[in-house]
């Protein structure tokens, strides 16, 4: 197969003018979409946004849907990457195949150059191979001359025509290969324009090779790939939603049990109960386990606080009841004596009148002490602290208390013995320390039968503590009563009988004494045997003043 080509000067063929959109008869273009006014968002934070951000669903469903959404976005990104990569790979393979076909076709073309004697022009005769060898059911080949007209084509183009793009032809004649995609008979095709450069022309272009390949197989492949990816993605999302729900339910089941236990504990007010804590090797790193442990710690603190509150309320109720009883007794005595004096008047014998007045005065004095003690304890409860801190000599305090205790013991004919008193100093308040020791001595006098013996002394316990003891041979205290001695209005059972007239205390003195000892960083220790006697020991830290540096004599040079 051959064709003759006459080389003549080429004229530039202008490109076809591109069609421009025309305006309608009204002369107005399409109106642009209305823009939102400045400063106002198209998507306001309304109920819809709140529902999207915080859907009214259980936590397990929200976790499952969140997991599904994340997985869906991941699958979508992966599917798009796979789809686009495969599409690009297939298109690249087709383009490379078209280039190879064009190079092979150019290499098989022969030229026959003939010069006519009567004409200066050179006639070029091209002998083409059989183009059907380069064509296939999905590929067509045709050769164009310099004017863009078809010189030769494969047999499968006899019954149809392939559009020729003049711009691509001009680019090929200029030595540039181009690709374009078009639709022929509703079938997408890939068209390749390459310059025809036979070897004999030494780089001159003799025409244009146009190779067309259908993209139907690629389109079918990509369609099946889309269906497969969509199917796999849908099944994956359904499975992920179910699996996420089951995993979320399993992960949140301890929280459900914790909620039920907390509700049960709150309804029963049983702060002694505890929620179950998983006992596994990895439990310490589990958030739910840490939550359960923290909740149990909170329950322990609530139990302790609740117990303290119950104890405080019980103490307050007992305090009010005891205070009412202690106040009612002297008031009743005073009222009885005053009514007796009012009714009898001058007819009452002087001895009886003096006895009634003495009883009233004694109860008034006891009532005054009780009110004073209550006032002191009220100040203690409000946060009273000792502000005065001086160096106090123990031997002086014991000597002063001994002198006052002898006067207090005279009505009961007690023998007051002063044991050895060590010389030591403590840091504190002299008046309060005297009051503390007088409370202990008064307690010993009250609960020791007449004619008993009371001993007062002080000795050092090492170099850092001084012990002041008040011992008696009185009634003694039972072991089960000792832990309650410092409670307000508490008196041992055998000390509540007032048949001897020696137990007129208020039950507040030891509470005040304990507070004074604690304010001096000390404590009161009790040792007692019923029927033998009791020993109260006040332990205080010894105060050692810091040694001052000796003054150095200044020598003046004269």
Q: Could you walk me through the main structural features you see in this protein, from its secondary elements to its overall organization?
A:
- With 558 residues, the protein is an alpha+beta fold.
- Among the domains are: 281-384, Orthogonal Bundle (Helix Hairpins), CATH 1.10.287; 387-541, 2-Layer Sandwich (Heat Shock Protein 90).
- It has nine helices and 15 strands.
- It has helices spanning 47-53, 59-107, 166-173, 216-268, 287-344, 350-381, 394-409, 430-446, 509-519; strands spanning 2-6, 110-115, 122-127, 139-144, 150-153, 178-184, 187-196, 207-214, 390-393, 415-421, 425-428, 453-460, 465-472, 523-529, 533-541.
- It has a five-stranded antiparallel beta sheet with strand order 5-4-8-7-6. A five-stranded mixed beta sheet has the order 10-12-13-15-14, covered by helices on one side. The protein has a three-stranded antiparallel beta sheet with strand order 1-3-2, with no helix packed on it.
- A hairpin with a 5-residue loop joins strand 4 and strand 5.
- Helix 5 packs antiparallel against helix 6 (350-381).
- The relative contact order is 0.06.
List the helices and strands and how they pair.
Layout: E1 2-6, H1 47-53, H2 59-107, E2 110-115, E3 122-127, E4 139-144, E5 150-153, H3 166-173, E6 178-184, E7 187-196, E8 207-214, H4 216-268, H5 287-344, H6 350-381, E9 390-393, H7 394-409, E10 415-421, E11 425-428, H8 430-446, E12 453-460, E13 465-472, H9 509-519, E14 523-529, E15 533-541
Parallel strand pairs: 10-12
Antiparallel strand pairs: 1-3, 2-3, 4-5, 4-8, 6-7, 7-8, 9-11, 12-13, 13-15, 14-15
Helix pairs in contact: 2-4, 5-6, 6-9, 7-8, 8-9
């Amino acid at each position: 197969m051959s064709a003759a080509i006459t080389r003549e000067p080429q004229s530039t063929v202008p490109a076809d003018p591109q069609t421009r959109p025309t305006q309608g008869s009204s002369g107005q273009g399409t109106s642009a979409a209305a823009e939102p006014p400045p400063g106002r968002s198209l998507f306001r934070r309304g109920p819809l946004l709140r529902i999207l951000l915080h859907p009214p669903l259980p936590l397990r469903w929200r976790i499952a849907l969140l997991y599904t959404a994340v997985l869906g976005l991941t699958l979508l990104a992966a599917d798009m990457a796979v789809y686009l990569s495969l599409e690009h790979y297939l298109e690249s393979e087709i383009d490379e195949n078209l280039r190879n076909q064009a190079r092979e076709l150019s290499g098989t073309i022969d030229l026959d150059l003939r010069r006519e004697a009567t004409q200066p022009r050179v006639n070029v005769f091209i002998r083409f191979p059989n183009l059907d060898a380069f064509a296939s059911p999905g590929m067509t080949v045709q050769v164009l001359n310099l004017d863009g007209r078809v010189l030769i084509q494969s047999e499968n183009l006899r019954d149809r025509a392939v559009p020729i793009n003049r711009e691509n032809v001009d680019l090929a004649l200029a030595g540039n290969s181009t690709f374009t995609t078009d639709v022929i008979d509703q079938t997408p095709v890939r068209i390749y324009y390459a310059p025809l450069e036979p070897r004999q022309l030494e780089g001159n272009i003799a025409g244009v090779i146009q190779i067309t390949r259908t993209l139907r197989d690629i389109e079918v492949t990509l369609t099946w790939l889309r269906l497969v990816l969509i199917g796999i993605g849908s099944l994956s999302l359904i499975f992920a939603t179910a699996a996420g729900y089951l995993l979320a339910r399993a992960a949140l089941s301890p929280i459900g049990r914790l909620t039920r236990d907390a509700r049960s504990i709150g309804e029963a007010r049983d702060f002694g109960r505890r929620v179950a804590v998983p006992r596994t090797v990895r439990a310490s790193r589990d958030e739910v386990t840490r939550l359960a442990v923290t909740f149990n710690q909170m329950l322990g603190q609530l139990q302790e606080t609740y117990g303290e509150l119950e104890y405080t309320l019980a103490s307050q109720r007992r305090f009010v009841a005891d205070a009412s009883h202690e106040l009612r007794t002297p008031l009743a005595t005073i009222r009885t004596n005053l009514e007796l004096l009012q009714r009898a008047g001058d007819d009452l014998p002087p001895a009886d009148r003096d006895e009634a007045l003495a009883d009233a005065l004694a109860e008034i004095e006891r009532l005054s002490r009780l009110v004073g003690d209550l006032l002191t304890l009220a100040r203690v409860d409000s946060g009273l602290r000792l502000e005065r801190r001086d160096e106090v000599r123990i031997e002086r305090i014991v000597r002063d208390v001994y002198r006052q205790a002898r006067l207090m013991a005279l009505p009961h004919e007690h023998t007051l013995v002063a044991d050895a008193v060590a010389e030591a100093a403590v840091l504190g308040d002299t008046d309060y320390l005297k009051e503390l020791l007088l409370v202990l001595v008064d307690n010993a006098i009250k609960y020791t039968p007449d004619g008993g013996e009371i001993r007062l002394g002080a000795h050092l316990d090492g170099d850092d503590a001084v012990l002041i003891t008040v011992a008696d041979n009185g009634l003694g205290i039972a072991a089960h009563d000792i832990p309650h001695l410092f409670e307000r209005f508490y008196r041992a059972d055998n000390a509540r009988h007032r048949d001897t007239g020696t137990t007129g205390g208020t039950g507040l003195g030891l509470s005040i004494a304990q507070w004074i000892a604690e304010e001096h960083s000390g404590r009161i220790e009790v040792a007692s045997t019923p029927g033998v006697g009791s020993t109260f020991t006040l332990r205080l830290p010894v105060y050692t003043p810091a040694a001052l540096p000796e003054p150095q004599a200044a020598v003046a040079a004269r």
